[in-house]
Amino acid sequence: MADLFTPLKIGSLEIPNRILMAPLTRCRAEGEHMPTELMAKYYAQRASAGLLIAEATMAMEGNSAFWHEPGIYSESQIAGWRLVTDAVHRAGGRIALQLWHGGRACHPDLNDGAVPVAPSALAIEGEEVHTPRGKQHYTTPRALEDVEIPSVVKGFARASANARLAGFDMVEVHAANGYLLDEFLRDGSNRRTGPYGGSVENRARLLIDILEAVGAELGNDRVGVRISPLNSFNGMQDSNPVALSVWLAKRLDDFGLAYLHVMRGDFYGRQTGEILAPIREHYQGVLVANMGYTPGEAQKAVAEGKVDAVAFGTAFLANPDLPARIQKGAALNAADPSTFYTPGPLGYTDYPTLSG
Fold first, then answer.
1. The CATH number of the domain where 184 resides is what?
2. Is the pTM of this model over 0.85?
3. Does position 317 have pLDDT exceeding 90, yes or no?
4. Is 344 part of a structural domain of the chain?
5. Catalytic one among 43, 73, 179, 293?
6. Is residue 355 part of a domain?
7. Within 10 Å of residue 76's Cβ, how many Cβ atoms?
8. What is the rounded CA–CA span in Å between residue 117 and residue 82?
């Protein structure tokens, strides 16, 4: 596993290994989407990751899709996140915050009755959302007007400034998994005309505008971005995900980002194709891959130069000391899906480490 434990320059950071923790929604925020001491403990337990990428966090108020997810738009949330970043840094770790807008995956029951927004008035079909009234069908969103879009860009810029105040080492812009930025990217959910619809260049305009604004706030070397061109989660599809991937790789290569984080497959297996190889061909920066990697496959991918690092999700959830376990060839704890999104420490901060 030597290649996984080779240091890597990732934007403004030098990280000690290439085992990253993927962003994982855990729904442990409290009150007004407030980060907590429990969350600080959870992330500090996993500080041996090369980089921790904290969970999807609301860049702007009123865009909740998970009921108990955190935000980064208020002073109290900044203070709450400071508990987390201080704990991680004391433990010797490095942490990025994933900035996110739920788009059409939001629900009125989670947002004081507000209708969700999206590139087009197309609802997520065949999936349900957890709300205070139980599981509900997704509602049909309202298409954002062109004149409203700059306010979304400004919201991400403010959130990145707040992340800096909260002590994060960098941010990751969430453009994956069927949330707002991904909805604009893919033609299955973006049926607009005008400057934000039609061509790939137009569909990517919102993401590019946000990356420029966030980069101006933090410096591009403190900004990563996550994409999932194949993933059909949240009712997503694209007519040509490989072409989309290549276009994004070429365009994002111009930014000098800290990294590009690619989900290589589809949770549901509905869309298939090879996207990592063409992305690697056209993107010269740090490439991070995610979805279903075993430690052995991750080692091989890094050794062969297919990717520069691998982000582990469920394995890190259940194994706070995942890098040590990989290095020693130790058995991994099994994750308990029944506690993925439940409140409290059970299935959150109580997974055992090798040292007990």
1. 3.20.20.70
2. yes
3. yes
4. no
5. 179
6. no
7. 13
8. 30
